[in-house]
């Protein structure tokens, strides 16, 4: 329900189209006289049976609907019946109900039935104007979110050519069988696994095989943005909510409504943000920063992390009740070292991709190179393999990639001696990162601790070097 605090806002600019439906012509005249100077266009009708016509031809932003159309009827059931018809035509319709026989139970029932708000008769002018203003803003935000969804759908409609899941090992067969069984449900999913194992690909696969596949899939890497941006990115904000908020912006939860939201590295959420996320999941609505309006959201949540969630709960860094909400289904993605035969399949796939990209005359991978790839531990998992193949293809000079074309072990730092001394800071930093990732088994948290930097800083450096 739309609520108001402080000074009641007035509609300053004429904006929005309003349809008023009431069987009392005096009420229609009074409302038309009052509201026509505050909105762009007003249409009135005494017959609710013409609502669908007006929705199709006039396309109102807000419908002001009376609840009783027959003489001596005060139950409001007619209003609920027409509300249901309106929402069947347009589930996102913004409807404000009116009645002279208002009570708390009726108000609660109206909101549960899908009404945006409820106005008693006789109305208070300022209350009515404020309610209408908030309703028009809600409709605007719905349209903006829909436009963003369309853009995201266009981007998501053609996944990258390496966006397929490749694997024939027993571990991958078992994983894909589980993913196939849970995809066409609305169950929230928690993906566990080391960095670079392809959690984002699994998330996208689940979405594309679900009943929500025609709607938007959007994700956010909580390990790659600063903590002070979490709230605005997830929940959005109103114009003027903070210094740089020059215009309103819907958050990822609002944009993903009807589809799937992928929260990568969810363990990075601060405790206050975890509490707010828990509320959004339970209540199925959110409020933008700088607003008291509740915006309904319907998302399937897929979360991912390479952190030890159980330890984080024990240490008080992650809420157990939030874990219960996000891990209806928990999937542990095996590291590449646990599926040796898949490393060769993936490497051959990446060879085909990069020989076309770089226009290289590379046909395949030699047997000695395959043995080298299969024996390697791949601390960086599929991401490391992809980079290794790309580098090998770029530097190759023959038809087949040889073992020497693959640089798989971290480069040892050179001792400071004479002319061989290496003082290139970027190279030294890259060497240190590679050694830390190798020593930590690909665990970004541990690698960041070894390097004496934050996880966020390490992510930035790794992305910069990719």
Distance between the termini: 47 Å
Structural class: alpha/beta
Number of helices: 18
Beta-strand fraction estimate: 5-15%
User: Uncertain regions: pLDDT < 50 for 5+ in a row?
Assistant: 1-12, 157-161, 411-421
**Global morphology:** elongated
Percentage of residues in helical conformation: 40-55%
Average of pLDDT: 84
- The main sheet orders its strands as 2-1-3-4-5
Query: Strand count, sense and closure of the main sheet?
Result: 5 strands, parallel
Number of strands: 16
Please state the CA-atom Rg, rounded to the nearest Å.
Answer: 29 Å
Quick take:
By secondary structure, this protein is α/β, with parallel strands linked by helices. The strands form five sheets. The protein has a five-stranded parallel sheet with strand order 2-1-3-4-5, sandwiched between helices. It has helices spanning 25-35, 51-57, 77-89, 104-113, 125-156, 170-183, 199-208, 230-235, 252-255, 271-283, 309-314, 320-326, 340-357, 367-375, 381-395, 425-439, 444-451, 455-465, and strands at 17-21, 41-45, 62-66, 95-99, 117-120, 189-192, 217-221, 236-237, 249-250, 260-264, 285-286, 295-296, 300-305, 329-332, 364-365, 400-401.
